[in-house]
Amino acid sequence: MMERVKKIAKPLLLLIVLGLAVALPWLGLEKYQLRVLTLALAWAVAAVSLNLILGYTGQASLAHGAFLGIGAYAFGIFTGRMGWNFWPSLLVAGLVPAFLGLLVGLPSLRTRGPYFAIVTLCFNVIVFKVFENWTWLSGGYQGQAVPKPGFLAQRWARYYFVLAALVLVLLVVRMIVKSLLGVTFMSIRSNEGLAEAVGINAFRYKLLSFTVSCFLVGLAGALLALENGHLDYTITSYTYSFNLLVYVLIGGAATLSGPVIGAMGLYYLLEHIEKAVGEYRYAIFGLLLILVIIFFPRGVAGGVERLWKWLKENRARRKAGEEVVEG
């Protein structure tokens, strides 16, 4: 009976959440609030992309801030300076970071453990310095404008577009992790040595996961550029890599909903209290991360799942005890 309820409850909950998300623009939100929600959705796409390589493949990338910015600039340059159509530019925004991710992954993924994180962080710092100093590319402090296509001129239209992108990315990632490919990724995460012992080419699959992850975060960068309507070199900052890491860990790595919860919840919260906390936002990030690691090792989504499992087991034990008493 409980299994049947669970099977019905989960899709029903997803439909309710999606319906609420669709209805939000018509619930009397101010323009600023809708803008923050749109940006939070874009950050959720970026967090989902990091979760693929971190949560499911077990590789802690600290370069996603760089790939996010590269995707944003690829989109901005092709739509703004070169006058390309929106859709090809959006595709290029994913392909350029994916290609660079492939090149970076070839040497860096041969390292293991913290060394991969260090190499990717160094790459992010290099990219940030390149964009900071190559003003002909980044536009320097002034940056560059990002044109909006006619069908996305309205704020509510951009909200729905980014929401649709997030749903599509979640469906793609779900298809990956539920397939044999996803099982391979998770076997590498669990025990890379054992995976290689049974014939899995761990390096090839880690490289594939990293490349797909870079493609998705490039799309997230394009979505951020589209909503902001402006770009400057700070979008390649390594602080964004740490922000994404916090979003995933607090929300729940290796879960589909966790990165979305972490990104949207934290971004929306900190945007509304930023004036009050200022630079202390990073201290808040650190404190939240410590609390989650101690009390919710699998993040918010993992904690909810664990609570549901505990309630289910507790109910089963109670029922068994009642049957014994009646017998």
Primary descriptors:
single chain, 327 residues, mainly alpha, two-stranded antiparallel ribbon, globular
The share of residues in extended strands comes to under 5%
Q: Roughly how many Å is the radius of gyration?
A: 21 Å
Q: Largest beta sheet: what is the strand line-up?
A: 1-2
- How many E strands? 2
Sheet/helix structural class: mainly alpha
The main β sheet shows up as: 2 strands, antiparallel
Helix content: over 70%
Order of helices and strands: HHHHHHEHHHHEHHHH
In DSSP terms, counting alpha (H) and pi (I) runs of 4 or more, how many helices?
14
Oligomer: single chain
**Mean pLDDT over the residues:** 89
Q: How far apart are the termini?
A: 22 Å
* Contiguous uncertain segments of 5+ residues: none
Gross geometry: globular
Quick overview:
This protein is mostly helical and 327 residues long. It contains 14 helices and two strands.
